[in-house]
Structures are given as structure tokens and as C-alpha cells.
Amino acid sequence: MLRRRVTLVVLVLMLALTFSACREKPDWEIVFGSSGAEELVLSNLDLEEIEQVEITATKLRKDGSEEEQHWRGITLKAALEYLGISEYEGVVAESADGYTVQLDKATVDDDGTLLGMELNGNELEEGDGPVQLVVSSARSNMWVKQLSKITV
What we know:
- By secondary structure, this protein is an alpha+beta fold.
- Helix content is 22%, strand content 37%.
């Protein structure tokens, strides 16, 4: 009887270890948080459940030049809705190197504010992605490369 129980426990442990090893690990994650609330994580594994969109954005550079770009990704508003975040007056977006920009509610809700993952049909280059905040209504200094965190 004891031998059967031990065998059963070993089998259960082996199944649990196999299951945990088989789970897909995300290629990237963005942390969403607010003061006093539990942090939520959005990753590439969530993308199948969120509508992806394509936009054309004109990147306005500091020197006054413009570049038309075709982006694919999810709107920031859709990401917030997916995570159950509905109350906000704005957000702060942060890059992997600590660069931050503050966006008001109107900009967050704009369909041209995107978590961009593809530029002109290609994945982003290492120094720009894997996710870039695209704010089509603002100059390029409001766009955030290597987006890593959104604070509400």
C-alpha cells in the first residue's frame, strides 16, 4: 500500500514538472502597474486574444523632418482594457533604459497610440523593440523604444 502511494506521488510530481517545462515562455513582457495595486503583465502570449491593428503614422523628428511609417500592433487602450484597467487619467510609459513619457487620457485613448511590434512589415530591430510605444499624434520624443513598463 505504501509502495503504491509513493509511486503515485512520484508520478504526480513527474507530470507537474513536465507540465511546467512545457509551458511556453514569453519573448517579451510589459509590466502595467499603479501605486498600491498589484502589477499586471502583458506579453506576446496575450496577443492572440487582443485585436491587432495597422496604422500609418508620420514620425515627426526634432529637426523638423517627417517619415511615414506603417505599424502593426495593439492600441494602448486595448491593452489596458484586456488587463481590466479602466480607471485612469493618463499613464507614464517607461523604456528599458529608464526614459519616460507622460500621456494624458485623450492620447492613451487615441487609436493612433499603439504598442507597435512591426514596422513596415518587419519585426523591430533589437535597439528599438521588441515593443515600441507609437504616438502618432506627437513628435518622436514621445515615442518610447524598448517599452518595458506602463504606470497608471
